[in-house]
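**Sequence, structure tokens**
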Amino acid sequence: MTPNEREIERTFEAGDRISRVPASDALMERLKQIPETVRAGYAKVPKKVVWAAAASIAILIVLNILSARDYTQETNASKASSSYFDHLKTL
């Protein structure tokens, strides 16, 4: 048997000697309380804050759409009247 094979065998044998450690009752109680804590955190956020965040996201989306529409109209209009300095508009 080569030294590498002996090392592998020793590693496998070490795994056989390892036993599980039972979890303490205090740890189990803390783990059981996690879902209740998370639910309580969701209940703490006021509905006004949720609706305000949703409204602000909707306003941002509308502004982006309007801005993109105006930009495409401007670029279409500027293509008709191009000048020597048009490349500076991209900056």
